[in-house]
């Protein structure tokens, strides 16, 4: 059996097994539309020629924000002094980037041999990870040695 015969047989088997390609394409389109809506880029409709530039610009802006945020966290994780923190408060700011919420967080930071101090910082906490950052929870932290107000959670 040749390559094309196998492809035809597989396509026939997929069709017989419920592989309705048009239905699968429609389901993928609906999933993409829902993800665009959840991220705040559209109302759930696919981008059109009329709004594609606006949607693309917003996606690029979100990418830039998330990239800069991640680079800063990685920088602090690499150079930071180790310590611990307790989350004192977490208030949703109402701001979203790519559909993910930003929180005004307050931490009590403890570094070895130093008195505890408080840091207030805006952090992005994805919905799926929110339970890990409950008020009162203890975390490992890294603190920028040049600025003790700049921290990154390490756990």
Can you offer a commentary on this structure?
The chain is of the alpha+beta class. The chain has two domains: 3-46, no CATH class; 80-153. 39% of the residues lie in helices and 29% in strands. The chain has three helices and five strands; from the N terminus they run H-H-H-E-E-E-E-E. It has helices at residues 3-16, 21-38, 52-79; strands spanning 81-97, 100-110, 117-124, 138-143, 151-153. A five-stranded antiparallel beta sheet has the order 3-2-1-4-5. Strand 2 and strand 3 form a beta hairpin. The longest helix has 28 residues, at 52-79. The N and C termini lie far apart (55 Å).
Compact overview of the structure:
It contains 3 helices and 5 strands, in the order αααβββββ. The chain has 155 residues and is α+β, with helices and mostly antiparallel strands.
Keywords:
155 residues, single chain, alpha+beta, elongated
Portion of residues in beta strands equals 25-35%
Task: Classify the secondary structure makeup into a structural class.
Answer: alpha+beta
Strand arrangement across the biggest beta sheet: 3-2-1-4-5
Distance between the termini: 55 Å
DSSP summary: helix tally? 3
The proportion of residues forming helix, as a percent range, comes to 25-40%
Q: Low-confidence segments, ≥5 residues, pLDDT <50? A: none
- Overall average residue pLDDT: 88
Could you describe the largest sheet, including whether it forms a barrel? 5 strands, antiparallel
Query: What is the H-and-E element order?
Result: HHHEEEEE
State Rg.
23 Å
User: Got a strand count?
Assistant: 5
| Overall number of structural domains | 2
Shape: elongated
């Amino acid at each position: 059996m040749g390559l094309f015969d196998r492809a035809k047989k597989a396509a026939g088997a997929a069709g017989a097994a419920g592989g309705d390609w048009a239905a699968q394409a429609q389901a993928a389109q609906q999933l993409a539309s829902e993800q665009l809506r959840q991220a705040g880029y559209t109302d759930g409709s696919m981008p059109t020629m009329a709004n594609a530039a606006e949607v693309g610009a917003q996606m690029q802006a979100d990418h830039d924000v998330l990239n800069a945020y991640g680079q800063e966290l990685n920088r602090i994780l690499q150079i930071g002094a180790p310590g611990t923190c307790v989350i004192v408060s977490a208030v949703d700011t109402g701001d979203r980037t790519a559909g993910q919420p930003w929180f005004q967080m307050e931490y009590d930071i403890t570094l070895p041999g130093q008195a505890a101090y408080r840091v207030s910082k805006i952090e992005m906490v994805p919905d799926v990870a929110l339970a890990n950052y409950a008020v009162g929870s203890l975390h490992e932290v890294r603190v920028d040695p040049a600025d003790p107000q700049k921290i990154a959670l390490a756990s």
